[in-house]
Write a structure and sequence with these properties.
Oligomer: heterodimer
Number of helices of chain A: 10
Protein name (chain B): ABC transporter permease
Number of strands of chain B: 4
Membrane topology (chain B): Multi-pass membrane protein
Structural class of chain A: alpha/beta
Structural class of chain B: mainly alpha
Largest sheet of chain B: 2 strands, antiparallel
Largest sheet of chain A: 6 strands, mixed
CATH superfamily of chain A: P-loop containing nucleotide triphosphate hydrolases
GO molecular function (chain B): branched-chain amino acid transmembrane transporter activity
Keywords (chain B): Amino-acid transport, Cell membrane, Membrane, Transmembrane, Transmembrane helix, Transport
Radius of gyration of chain B: 25 Å
Number of helices of chain B: 25
Helix content of chain B: over 70%
Shape of chain B: globular
CATH architecture of chain A: 3-Layer(aba) Sandwich
Order of helices and strands of chain A: EEEHEEHEHHHHEHEHEEHH
Distance between the termini of chain A: 34 Å
CATH class of the largest domain in chain B: Mainly Alpha
Distance between the termini of chain B: 64 Å
CATH class of chain A: Alpha Beta
Main location (chain B): membrane
Helix content of chain A: 25-40%
Largest interface: A-B, 30 and 27 residues
CATH topology of chain A: Rossmann fold
């Protein structure tokens, strides 16, 4: 569609000789939450990294707001308005919470809501209490909150969330779902990669299922429920 | 009492200048992951520029301190030029290429300095206003030393302030932990890297400029300071500014008192301390394991055993060499033996580096051990050549066993630094143990047996080299070699399937050491003499350059690399300003062919003959 915020097509990514993504294609609307579903090793993280420019796709196109960004350096992709929340959190452990937020700070954007540390502390109350603590001393859930807050400091238009529910306590997962809904309310678009179908269903509008580096399904959760064998074949363990 | 206090103050004053250099090195490494061998050159430049400014501007204390700051700023600009023109192009190259490239920069700066300021040592004036000595506990202490003692902590405080209170400082600290993530958060790393490099260069220049009133300015300043600066950075923890400060104090104060007990200890003491610290704390006092994040490493194409055509080609090369004495029995034979020595030396380094994944900055240690052992067997034990030759690899293997046991417990840059420390300690011992090694005078008259004419010795060297290379090839393609390569590519997985990786690496280290020892033996009898230079840092770097010129990922790499090195060196060292030319050649190769001559040739081949399968990493 012409009004897609992000449109990926024919994306092929290799690690050395290994063909990781083959002809991956999907799109995200301006205020849509899309779940990128798939098993471990299916290529979810690689897809997100290819969009972000952290790995260079060998071929294919990534169009953001009508402009080709495939192969751009990550900092340029970020400056265009795409925020990246990595899978392994990657907080700057020796920096304080406040300093972590400072690293993510970018000037406000006309088409996205402006985030300040105060607003983020309201959204993530745990971080407010720990603003002067080194990030490395916090719990996994708190670090996960911090990485999201840090990315939001860049005032992104589209947020790429890589496995936000992985390895954190159920209570925090619930909080995470709230945050994603809040981002949608703010008018942002979100791409989350997930293995957890249940969580994805709660927070997202649409699903893209990827298996062995190729897209197997694109559609609503209702469509997915109408074809139970798809989920069985691509997601069940 | 007063005397010891004075000694302490001297130590602290030295610590301040050492800290300035090391802290810049540490910041540069933290942000860019480049081990900047040219850092000593920036320090030297600072001193030369300050000398010129101080002796031109006579404006009392103000003029002096302004000159010092101006010099540091000028060096920062030089740093910016180096970063933008050279380093920026090779951040993605393997880290050893970066090291060799900065060594090229070192050579160029050395000759540029020689061209501008001449070869004479320059003695600058004392600092105006601080040119006297005060008596503390009855001992005269130079006022300038006291000023330095203050300057060190002040600079530490300023840097800490900048790192804590400015956005730039926060970004630098974040990049030291995970620079890729910083990029993904919208920070242009180019700008960050350039500015961090400039700060590092500024501090090096400042350190050099502040030395002008204390010592004469000379062309030896670069290499004399770089070893100690590395040690301080490693002891403190790479990337840690506070660590560099503490380590600079430890080293300088220990040195100040160490020389009272054993005057020559300053040559090896820093390296001894570093070896001890690294064994106890593998990432230095304040360091942490470098962030594991980064671009996923491009898996290397597996090395393939030589095919039929390859074996034929190699046989032809050997036959061609064997026919050399027919053509010429003079200079070319001498050069050919030099070449064999270099090839074997480089191939042995490649065995631990390319196959084993352990980067050694001190491989010359085992070359030198082999050369000295054989020479001593002839001179002291009075053995004939052939039995004496056996002592070489034995001694080298023994040395490699001792040092290797410690080294395989570390990885990456820290391992490289410990190998450097080991080599430096051995160099210090040979340099000082005059009664046995002859010290600086070396051991002379180690000629081949009378039956071994130049021609016979040539064939002997050829045979030994061919056997050595075949052995390395055999090892690389044996189950043992596969284990080493597996450990290189994924240490955790190798250990998870039950491999005692350290034991394998240790054995690999010993074998490589022994083979370097063989090269040393061939060298000793070819030259008829042995000097401490065979163990020096410069010689280890020669080997690294050979391996990198050839390309780390090919077993043939060391052959190409050593050949290119010997031919280039033979040609270039006859020219004036050969360092400049040699440095420029190194830089050119680093920038144009980061996968070495072997890799570059195969890329060229693919260009000429598209359709041949890619074998190396993508360009």
């Amino acid at each position: 569609m012409a009004d897609d915020l992000l449109a990926v097509s024919g994306l092929n990514t290799y690690y050395g000789g290994a063909h990781i993504l083959s002809d991956v294609a999907f799109a995200i609307g301006g205020n849509e939450v899309v779940a990128l579903l798939g098993r471990n090793g299916a290529g979810k993280s690689t897809t997100i990294k290819s969009v972000m420019g952290l790995v260079r796709p060998r071929s294919g196109s990534v169009v953001y707001q009508g402009e080709e960004i495939a192969g751009d350096e990550p900092y340029r992709v970020c400056r265009r308005g795409i925020g990246y929340v990595p899978e392994e959190r990657r907080v700057f452990s020796e920096l304080t919470v406040e300093e972590n937020l400072e690293v993510g700070r970018r000037p406000p954007r006309a088409d996205a809501s402006e985030w300040t540390p105060e607003r983020l502390y309201a959204l993530f109350p745990n971080l407010a209490e720990r603003r002067r603590h080194p990030a490395g001393r916090m719990s996994g859930g708190e670090q996960q909150m911090l990485t999201i807050a840090r990315t939001l400091m860049g005032n992104p238009r589209l947020v790429l969330l890589d496995e936000p529910s992985e390895g954190i306590a159920p209570l925090i997962v619930e909080q995470m779902a709230m945050v994603i809904k809040e981002l949608k309310r703010e008018g942002l678009a979100v791409l989350i990669s997930e293995q957890n179908l249940h969580f994805a269903r709660i927070v997202s509008d649409r699903a893209v299922i990827i298996e062995k580096g190729a897209v197997r399904f694109t559609g609503t959760f209702a469509d997915l429920d109408a074809n139970p064998d798809i989920a069985q074949a691509t997601l069940a363990l | 009492m007063g005397f010891y206090f004075a000694q302490l103050l001297t130590g602290l004053a030295n610590a301040s200048s050492l800290f300035l250099i090391a802290c810049g090195l540490s910041i540069i490494f933290g942000v860019t992951r480049i081990v900047n061998f040219a850092h000593g050159s920036l320090y030297m430049l600072g001193a030369y520029i300050a000398y010129t400014l101080v002796t031109t501007i006579h404006a009392g204390p103000f003029g002096f301190w302004a000159s010092v700051l101006l010099s540091a700023a000028a060096v920062a600009l030089v740093g910016a030029v180096i970063e933008i023109l050279i380093l920026r192009r090779i951040y993605r190259a393997p880290e050893l290429f970066q090291l060799v490239a900065t060594f090229g920069v070192l050579l160029i700066i050395q000759d540029a300095t020689l061209a501008i300021w001449g070869a004479e040592d320059l003695l600058g004036p004392r600092a105006p206003g601080l040119d006297r000595a005060v008596r503390i506990f009855g001992e005269p202490i130079p006022e300038y030393d006291l000023a330095l003692i203050v300057i060190g902590p002040v600079v530490l405080g300023l840097i800490t302030l900048v790192f804590r209170k400015t956005r730039w400082g926060v970004l630098v600290r974040a990049a030291t932990q995970d620079r890729e993530m910083v990029g993904a958060l919208g920070v242009n790393q180019r700008w960050l890297f350039t500015s961090a490099f400039m700060l590092g260069a500024f501090l090096a220049g400042l350190g050099g400029a502040l030395q002008v009133p204390r010592e004469s300015v000379s062309l030896l300043m670069d290499l004399s300071v770089i070893g100690e600066a590395f040690v301080v950075v490693v002891i403190g923890g790479m990337g840690s500014v506070g660590g560099a400060f503490v380590a600079a104090i430890i080293i300088s104060v220990l040195n100040a008192f160490g020389v009272l007990v054993f005057p020559q200890i300053s040559l090896i003491l820093p390296f001894l301390v570093m070896a001890i610290v690294l064994v106890v704390r593998p990432y230095g006092l304040f360091g942490s394991p470098a962030s594991a994040h980064g671009a996923p490493p491009v898996p290397e194409a597996p090395m393939r055993p030589l095919n039929q055509a390859g074996i034929v080609a190699m046989t032809l090369v050997v036959v061609a060499f064997a026919a050399l004495p027919v053509v010429d029995d003079g200079f070319i034979l001498v050069l050919a033996v030099d070449l064999f020595v270099a090839v074997l030396f480089a191939a042995s380094l490649h065995l631990i580096m390319g196959v084993g994944g352990m980067v050694s900055f001190g491989h010359a240690a085992y070359f030198g051990l082999g050369a000295y052992a054989a020479a001593l067997a002839v001179k002291t034990l009075g053995l004939p050549m052939l039995p004496a030759m056996l002592f070489g690899p034995l001694a080298a293997a023994l040395g490699a066993a001792v040092f290797g046991w410690f080294c395989v417990r570390l990885s990456g840059v820290y391992l490289a630094m410990l190998t450097l420390a080991a080599a430096q300690i051995l160099w210090g011992v040979t340099f000082q143990w005059q009664s046995v090694t002859g010290g600086d005078d070396g051991i002379l008259g180690v000629w081949p047996a009378s039956w071994a004419s130049r021609e016979v010795y040539f064939y002997l060297a050829l045979a030994v080299t061919v056997v050595g290379l075949a052995l390395i090839r055999r090892i690389a393609n044996s189950p043992f070699g596969y284990t080493l390569r597996g450990g290189r590519d994924s240490p955790t997985r190798a250990e998870a399937i039950g491999i005692d990786l350290k034991a394998h690496q240790w054995l690999g280290f010993i074998i490589a050491g022994a083979l370097a020892g063989v090269a040393g033996v061939l060298f000793a009898f070819a030259k008829g003499s042995v000097f401490p230079e065979t163990l020096a840092i410069g010689h280890s770097i020669d080997a690294l350059i050979m391996v990198l010129l050839g390309g780390v990922q090919s077993l043939l790499g060391p052959l190409f690399g050593a050949t290119a090195f010997v031919l280039i060196e033979d040609w270039v060292t006859r020219l004036d300003y050969w360092r400049f030319i040699f440095g420029a050649i190194i830089l050119l190769i680093c920038i144009a062919a980061p996968d070495g001559i072997a890799g570059g040739l195969s890329r060229l081949w693919r260009l000429v003959r598209p359709g041949t399968p890619r074998s190396g990493r993508p360009a």
